[in-house]
Write a structure and sequence with these properties.
Rossmann fold, alpha/beta
């Protein structure tokens, strides 16, 4: 990655419970291991949980900045070399509207003072004005989708709202979680794209897939990202490959090529 610019990646989902926060935490861990200066921003106001991956109970959070009691650049917590967390606490709906309005200015302040190479933003599940604002400024919006038909439908609904709200469609990519075999992701991506191509005129490249791995729970109990707790596993390797597709190469391949590689 260029040392001269900041790349912004937003993680979105059509509904909760798909592992979006876990994916964000592990992509951030993978970036830090690559020597990429990464800022992990927990913007999931309804249920912020990224601090739990590191056993933290933060006193100051991002909401202190957009509610006016602190400067945003003073809040990030250093977790590892090259990795900082901008934590959040559970807030009501009014706070989401305030963050939506303040987000562009807060983002610029963070970039100016912290100069990260990568900002990973973990958004609340479901469509919202905050999602529209963040995705419009992101270099890449990653849609996290599960393996059931309901998740496919929720992802389609999120994408439909996103495209309708965007003056300029953002770059999009699909991440499939919770599968048994990685090749299942290609089938699921094809099902989604059959609908999006027909009704929205858009195909979403498959960036990667993370299989079901019960040791994710163990890692959370150990207060570590999975990538750090179990670095030699298949899932850890797939997180690193996913980072490469999202950030390092800046290139998203189609499902067929991903199936061949994996």
């Amino acid at each position: 990655m260029s040392k001269e610019s900041t790349r912004i990646v937003a993680l979105c989902s059509g509904r909760p419970g798909l592992g979006k926060s876990t994916t964000a935490a592990n992509l951030a861990a993978a970036a830090a291991r690559e020597g990429i200066l990464c800022l992990l921003w927990d913007a999931q106001l309804n249920s912020p949980r990224l601090h739990l991956h590191y056993g933290l109970n933060p006193v100051a959070t991002a909401s202190d900045a957009y509610l006016g009691s602190a400067r945003i650049e003073t809040i990030p917590i250093r977790l590892r070399p090259h990795l900082w967390l901008l934590p959040e606490r559970t807030l009501n709906g009014d706070a989401e509207a305030q963050l939506t309005g303040a987000f562009p200015a807060l983002l610029q302040e963070l970039i100016h003072h912290r100069r990260p190479e990568l900002i990973l933003i973990n958004l609340p599940p479901g469509w919202s004005g905050l999602a529209a604002t963040v995705c419009q400024r992101a270099d890449l919006c990653c849609l996290v989708m599960g393996e059931d038909i309901g998740s496919i439908l929720d992802t389609y609904a999120f994408l439909k709202a996103l495209l309708a709200s965007s003056r300029k469609p953002p770059r999009l990519g699909l991440i499939v979680t919770g599968i048994v075999e990685v090749t299942e992701a290609c089938v699921l991506a094809d099902k989604l794209n059959a609908a999006t191509a027909r009704f929205l005129g858009q195909r979403i490249p498959l960036l990667g897939a993370i299989p079901y791995e019960p040791r994710h729970r163990t890692a959370l109990l150990q207060q570590q990202p999975f990538l750090e707790a179990f670095p030699e596993t298949e899932a850890a390797l797939l997180y690193r490959r996913l980072l490469h597709r999202c950030v390092v190469t800046h290139q998203a391949d189609h499902a067929g090529k991903i199936a061949q590689e994996w």
